[in-house]
Amino acid sequence: MPSTRTIRIAGAQLACRLNRRIENFARAGELATRAAAAGAQLVLFPELMPSGYTISPRLWQGVEPADGPTARWLRRTSAELGIYLGTSYPELDCGHIYNTFVLTTADGREAGRVRKSHTESYLFRGEPNSHVIECDLGRIGVGICADNHYADFARLMRRSRVDLMLMPHAGPAGKTVGGLISQADIHRQHDVFQSLAPRYAEMLGAPALFVNQCGRTSGERGTGIVGSVLNSPACYFPGLTTLADSGGRVVARLGGDDGLVIGDVTVDRSRYPEAEPRLHGAFVTPGSWFTRHVIFTIDGCLGKMYYARRRTRAGVQSGERAA
To answer: How confident is the model at residue 323 (pLDDT cuts 50, 70, 90)?
Structure first.
């Protein structure tokens, strides 16, 4: 494999309806077909595209086994279109629920899978892993939503010397001011989402693709401190899907509607920057110390206890039939 090459990749931004897998697959398939027709070699969907996203146990209605509907759909659609495809889904394995990303190859095989490490502790079990998938396109780094925002993950990706960085998100942001949401919070979260791909591309010397859901949140009562805010009608999925080339130049960006970003990016291992990036304590970007070190810590501990009790009582089973 040459050390320098150009690849065409796409990010498919869409509104993912909660526990409406068939509808979500249909819209994702339309976007993937458009991307393939435009010559894309890889299409990345948002985090939890098949199930949609909510910070409540309703998400468990869409859990699947390892070789469930999502893995089968990815393999079949990749083979039909001749492109790489990737997304994550709620996987049930040995009684635990993981946020698992799967990448499939252009000939319909599974290239690899990654589990989210920095999870919503009320809903998922986190799993430390390499976050790297080796395939014909190179060494692909995968950060699932919150993973990308932690400094330990950014350092892991630098040590891994990845050729391409994929960052699927289901990241809400404030829409209206009130309660715990200020105008500064809204601006800050939008800035974080818009800057994440170019920031990683600059840190790694590799192209980076940030893909987010768009549209409304579930609007239901969320679980935990953070969930009660992010699930509320005061928040939404802003999209802002962004493709950045190695070095940090933004190639393409979306606003808040369904659609595609698509562009040619350069994989060039000689662009790896030796200088250490500027990080912000335990996080990649600046933010509220109180929120990160007090609220997140308390909410994370409460979430682990909730998950242990509620998962057992709920008797979570594979949601093969969720539509």
So the answer is: low
Residue 292 within any structural domain of the chain: yes
Per the structure, how many domains does the chain have?
A: 1
Residue 205: burial class (beta carbons within 10 Å; 0-12, 13-18, 19+): buried
Phi and psi torsions of 37, nearest 5°: -65, -25
Distance CA 62, CA 172 (A): 20
> How far is 310 from 294, CA to CA, in rounded Å?
24
Nearest residue to 26 via CA among 54, 45, 53: 45
Q: Are 73 and 86 in contact (CB under 8 A)?
A: no
Query: Considering the domain boundaries, does residue 136 fall inside one?
Result: yes
The range of the structural domain enclosing residue 292 comes to: 7-314
Percent of the chain's residues with pLDDT above 90: 87
Q: Is residue 191 part of a domain?
A: yes
- With CA atoms as reference, report the closest residue to 63 among 88, 29, 26: 88
Query: Around 57, how many Cα atoms within 13 Å sit in the side-chain half-sphere?
Result: 13
Q: What is the pLDDT of residues 95-121, one digit of tens each?
A: 999 999 999 999 999 999 999 999 999
Residue 1 lies in a domain: no
Q: Cβ(169)–Cβ(47) under 8 Å?
A: yes
**Segment 20-35 mean pLDDT:** 99
pLDDT digits (tens, 9 = 90+) for 235-267: 999 999 999 999 999 999 999 999 999 999 999
Report the CATH number at residue 164. 3.60.110.10
Contact predicate 208/197, CB 8 Å:
yes
Q: Is the pLDDT assigned to residue 277 strictly greater than 70?
A: yes
